Amino acid sequence: MNFDVIIIGGGTGGICSAARLKKHLPKLSIGIIEPSGTHHYQPLFTLFATGHADAQQIQRPMSQVIPKGCHWIRDSVATVDPENNQISLSGGEKATYRLLIVAPGLVSNFDSIVGLSNAINDRTHPLCSVYDSSNLNKCAILTKDFLGGTMVFSTPSTPIKCPSAPLKMLFLVEDSLRRSGVRDVSRLIFITPFSTLFGIEGYRQTINALVQQRGIDILFEHEVVGINQRNREVLLQPSSSAAAERNIKSIHYDFAHITPAAQPPRFVADSGLHHADGFFAGWLEVDPLTLQHVRWQNIFGLGDVAGLPNIKSSTAARAQAIVVAENIHFLIKKGGKLPLPKQYNGYSSCPIFTSVGEAMNTEIGYDGRLLPTFPGNPFQPRRSLWWYNAHVLPRLYWNFVTRGH
Question: Is the model's pTM score more than 0.90?
Answer without folding.
Answer: yes
